[in-house]
Amino acid sequence: MTAYREILTQTAGGVLTITLNRPERLNAWTGIMQTEVETAIRAGGADDAVRAIVITGAGRGFCAGADMNNLQTIQASGGESYQTKIPDPKPKAVSPLEQTFPGRFGHMFACPKPIVAAINGPCAGIGLILTLFADLRYAAEEAKFTTAFAQRGLIAEHGIAWQLPRLVGEANALDLLFTARKFTGAEAERLGLVNKALPQDELMPHVAALAQHLATQVSPRSVAIMKRQIRESYFQTYAASLAAADAEMERSFATHDFKEGVASFVERRAPAFTGN
After folding, report:
1. Pairing of strands 7-12, 15-20
2. Under a CB-based contact definition with an 8 Å cutoff, are residues 143 and 185 in contact?
């Protein structure tokens, strides 16, 4: 088992839970955390025992953005330490999908497992960007969000300028980026930034139930292919997307999971999907 310094990991019932673990700093993001989160996600993506991945924060925060000590170091170096501060755990060869989505968080789009962000508290800057690369997002109603960059003299970094308008529309994205204003989980739901906002005490039980459903009630093969289809469609014509779907459907008919899906429905029992 990998020993981590700034995250906690636990796998139970097919669900890998990654917890950002610097609660005294509201889980502020560091180079160590960057490497450890990516390492854990890559390991979960390759582990047949993992069917779903949940990311959350320890204590009362999700992630308060980049650690201010790191930002001060970057400022003092005139930016020279910006790239060198973050070790790169990427393998030498990455998938075509990850090549399409490079950068710090593109590996999350390429991960074959569904990734769910459980935003339990303050979520700012790079912490907010992390959640945008999750497949599903759930937040506490009173959790505070902010893009933060404009108030630090920074820009829309790490793909948020591409991601945010696709989730909330251009006008809302420009509002959140230009003003860097704080908004709640409840507003994040209204904007379409999160799938649902819930009372604080209901957040983790809801996410746990969802993750368990993903781990036991749906085909992991189907989910992995659907996730790839959606992300590839960003750069495809409709005709190309349809052709890819037709080819994948043909392949699905020969799989164990298709046979099991039909059999479990006819026999009115829980499915036993294998991912094959």
Report:
1. antiparallel
2. yes
H or E element: which one contains 22? none
Let me know if domain 7-215 sits in CATH 3.90.226.10: yes
Distance linking the first and last C-alpha atoms of the chain: 26
Query: In terms of DSSP H, where are the helices of the chain?
Result: 31-46, 68-76, 81-84, 96-100, 106-110, 126-132, 160-168, 170-179, 185-191, 200-216, 220-233, 238-252, 256-266
- Whole-model pTM: value is 0.92
The identity of residue 151, as a single letter, is: Q
Rg (CA), the chain: 19
- The 10s digit of each residue's pLDDT in 64-100 is 999 977 654 544 445 454 444 556 788 878 899 999 9
How far is the C-alpha of 221 from the C-alpha of 258, rounded, in Å? Answer: 10
CB atoms within 10 A of CB 90: 14
Of 55, 70, 64, which Cα lies nearest the Cα of 20?
55
Residue 23, φ and ψ in degrees, nearest 5 = -60, -30
* Per-residue model confidence as pLDDT tens digits over 2-15: 789 999 999 999 99
